[in-house]
Design goal:
heterodimer; A: 809 residues; alpha+beta; Alpha-Beta Plaits; 5-stranded antiparallel β-sheet; 29 strands; rod-shaped; B: 207 residues; mainly beta; Immunoglobulin-like; 2 domains; 4-stranded mixed β-sheet
Amino acid sequence: MKLPFKSLQSRIIFLFVTLILAVQFMGFIAIWVSINKNARVAIKEQLGIGEKVLRTVIIRRGENLTLSARILATDYGFRQAIASNDSETIQSALENSGSRIESDVNMLYSPEGARQVVSGSLPINLIDEPIHQLIETAQSGGESFKIAVFEGVPYLLVAVPVKAPLTIAWIITGFEIDDNWANRIQDVSLLEVSFITKNNRNSAGKAQWNLSSSTMNRALAQESISGIPNSWSQASDKNTTPSNVLDTEVSVQGLDYGTRYVQLLNQDNHVLVAVLQRSISESLAPYFTLQLNLLVLTIIGAFVFVAGSVLTAKRITQPLTALVETAEQLEKGDYSKPVLSNSTDEIGHLSRTFDRMREAVAEREQKISKLAYWDELTQLPNRAFFTDQLLKFSENYQQNQQTFSVLMMDLDRFKHVNDVLGHSAADQLLAGVAERLKQSCKSETDIVARLGGDEFGIILANTDAELALTVAKRLQQALETPIALNDTFVDLSAGVGIANYPAHTNDIEVLLSRAEIAMYAAKNTAGGVAIYHGGLDVANDENLSLVSEIKLAVEQNQLCLFVQPKIDFVTGKLLSVEALVRWNHPERGMVFPDMFIPFAEQTGHIGKISYWMLSEAARYAAIWQSQGLPVAVAVNLSARDLIDIELPHKLKQILDKHQLQASSISLEITESSIMDDPERALETVERIAKMGIQLSIDDFGTGYSSLAYLKRLPVSELKIDRSFVMNIERDQDDVTIVKSTIELGHNLGLKVVAEGIENQNVWNILKRMGCDYGQGYYMSKPMAADQLLEWAENWDLTNIETSLDNQTA
Amino acid sequence: MPNPFVCRVTAIIFLLIFSQQIQAVELTIDVLDSTGSPIENAVVYAEPENKSSIPAANAIIEQRGIQFNPLVSVVQAGTDVTFPNFDSVRHHVYSFSPAKTFELKLYSGVPTSPVKFDKAGTVVLGCNIHDYMVAFIHVVDTPYFAKTNKLGKAVLRDLPNGNYTLKAWHYALAKEKEIVEKQVLVKESQTIVMPLSLKPFMIPSKK
C-alpha cells in the first residue's frame, strides 16, 4: 500500500489514526444499526404484548360481564319475573344490573331468539343475527361473548342463560368498544390504540373504513387506516377465527410508527380491526442520548488516540532521527561522537549496536588507511599517501605561501640487481635504502615515501630548489656507503630529480612528472642529481608525440626503405645492402632513425617497424632478383624482436610471400640487444639460422659484449662500428682494434664488414687489413630502395679505386 | 352432547277382546325414536272421551343425593305430590311452569303439606340453590297413564273399551306442541307404536 506520506512519523500517525477512526466509525455504525434493529424488535415485542393485552382485556371484560350478568340471571326474583312475563320488572332488573356493571347494552332474549326486553338505548340498527350466533355458541358450550359491529360501532356482547331450571331466557349484555377501551389498553401497553370498523351497508366496491375510536388525535389516527390490507375488507367465512395479524410500519405525519393490525372480527361484512401503534422515534429517543454520548466518546477517543499516536510516532522516530544524524556524521568520516542510549527497547538496542558499528568502522578505516597509505616492506608511506600529501602541501601554500620541493629518486639498474640477487635480497636492499633516506631527512616536516618498485619520493617542506639540491647531494652521499645485505654489502647508486613548487609548476601532477624528468636526466650526469629545467621538457614533449606518431607512421606508410650497399673489398661487387628506415613525417619532413628508433624500442612499437622493414626488404629483394640483381638485404633487429617467439614464423611467411630464398634476407643484431635476454635471444637466433637466414653482429665492440655468447651465436658476419673505422687514419688504438677485430672474426670463421668508410684512404687501409666488406659514404650514401637498380648499373670499382696505384697507405 | 335423533315409534297394542264392560283391556305402547331406539321415561296416557275425575293416589318426588327422584313423574290432575328431602342439605324446590307455579322454601325432611297439581300440563321443577336439579311432572287429565321403561315400553291396564286419544310426551320434545296424539279405539289389548321426534337434550348434571 503506498502511503501518501514520506516520513515514518506521519505514516505511523496516519495508519493509527485511520485504523482507530475506522474502528470507531464501524463500532458507531454497528451500534446505530443494532439500536435501530433492537428498537424495532422491542417495538414488535411491545406490539405483541399490546395485542395480548387487547385480547386479554376483551376476554376479561367479557368474563366480567358474564359474571355480572350471571348474578342477575340466577337471581330468583328475576327468574320469577321472567317466568311470569313481568316485563316491567324484568326491564328494571336489567337496568339495575346494567348500571351496576356499567354496560351499554342490556337485553333479554327468548330461548327461540326473539328480542323480548330492552333496557337502555339500543345500538343503532341492531340486528339479531350476531346475537343468535352468540346464543348458539354459548348454548353449545363455547364462548359466551362476542364482538359485533352495528352501524360502524363495535360492541362486546355476552349472552347468559337464565335457567329455571331449564333455560327460559337469555340475558344479552355488553359494552361499546370506545375510547375508554382504547385508553385502558394504552395504559397497560403504552401503545396507541385505535379501533376501525367497516360495514358494507353503503359501499359497493371498495372498503369504507371508519375510525371508531382511538387514543390518538382522530385526524392522525385516520392516517393509519391506509395500512390495513385489502383482503381484510373482503367478506370471509363466518367461522373465521379473528386472529389475523399484520405487522408493518406506518407513517403518521412524517413519523414512523411500528403498527400491528389485529383483525378482531370479520363476519358477514362486519369487520373490526384494532390498530396498535408505537412511535419508532419515541422508542428510539432514549437511545438517542446513548448514541450522542457514544459519538462524543468516539470523538474524544479519536483525539486521545491521535495524540497517543503522535507521541508514539515521535517516540519511535526521534531516536531514529538521532541515529540518522549520527550516520551523517559517520558518512563525513567523523567517528568521534558516540551514540548514547539508555533505553532497553529495540531502538535502544539499535542505538548501542550502531555505536559499536561506529567504533568498528573507525577502526577498520584506520587499518585500511594504513594499508592504503603504507608500504610494509620499506616501512615508508606509499605513492597514494605521497600524492595526498602533495595536495596538502599545495593547499598549505595557498594559505601561508610556503614553497616546497619534490625529490624523485630512482635506483640505477635495480632490475639487474633483482635478477642477479633475487627478490628477497632486492627487498632487503630496498628496505636498507629506505632506512638511509629516513635518516637523511627531517621526519617532522618532510615526507619520505616509496613510490613503487625502486622509486622513492621526498617532499621537502619550506625548501627551494637550491636547498633541495644540497639535500639531494646529501642523499647521494648517504648511498655511497654500500648497503648491508645479510653478510655482504651491495653498492647502489641512484638518480635524483628535483622540482619545486611553485617555481617549476603550480600543478601537482606536472610537478611529479617534472621531478621524474629531472631524475632521468640526472641518471645521465656524473653527480646523479639534477634540477628540472625547461629544456628537458621540450625534448620530452616532442618525444611523447613522436611515440604516438610512430604508430601512425607504420599504418599510413610514412616510412620508406633506404638502402646502403655493402661492397666486397676484393671483387668490388655489390653483394648486399643494409636496409635503413626513413620516416617521411608529414610535418617534420624526413626523420632519421636516431630520432625515433630508440623510442620505438622503448615503447614497443619497434616490432611493427621491424616487421614493416622485413616486408619491404623482402619485396625489394624479390623485385631486384627479378630484374637480375640478386642482392641480399640486411635488416636491423632490436632486442625486442629477438625475444619475439613469432619472429621465425613471421620471417618464413615473408619469405614465402615473396618467394625468396632464405639467403635473400639477413639480419643484423647488436651485442646489447642479445644481452637483454641472452638465452631467449639465442634460441630465436638459432631457429632463424636453421632457416638459412644469415646473421650479423652489428656495432661490434660498442655495447655489452660477451665473447662467450658470441661464439655460440650462429652468426656469419661481424660489423665493425663506424666509431672505430672513422678514426683509423689518425688513431692508432682504433687501428689496433679494427685489425684485431678482423682477425678475430676471421679466426671465428666470420666475415667482417667495416662501416663508416668515408674516403679512399680508409678504404685502402681496410683493404690491406683484409676486411671483407665495406659500407660507407665513400661508396654510397644510403639511397631510396628504388634507386638501387640504377646505381648498381653504374657502379664500378674503378670509380673509387682510380687512384689506388697513385697512393700509398 | 347427545345427538339429535329422529324418532319413529312403533307401538304394538295387544287388545284382549272381552265384553266391553267386564274385561279391561291392556294397551302396550312402544315409544321409539327415529332410529328405532326405545325411549325411556316417555309418558304415555290415554284420554277417554269422557273425562273422569277419579283422583289418583299421592305421588312422591324425593330429593336424594342432590337430585330429584324420579326424573319424570306422571300424575292425574288433582293429585297431591309430596317432596320429601332426604339430603342433609336443605333444598328450595320451585317451579315457574304455568301448569303449577309454586315454591317450597328451604326445607329439610318432609314438608308439612303436599302440593296439589290440578292443571294439566308440564311442570318443570328446579332447586333454587342447586342449578342442576331438575324434574318433570307431566300432569294429565286421565287416570290411564304410564311411563315407558328402558325398553321404551309402557302398558296401560284396565282400559274400558271405547275411543281414546292416546298421547305420548317426552321432556325432550322439540316443541311442546309436539305431543304425539293418536286416536285409538280400545276393544282388545293391542300394541301401539308411538314415534316421537326428540331434540337433543342434556339433563343438567353436577359439574
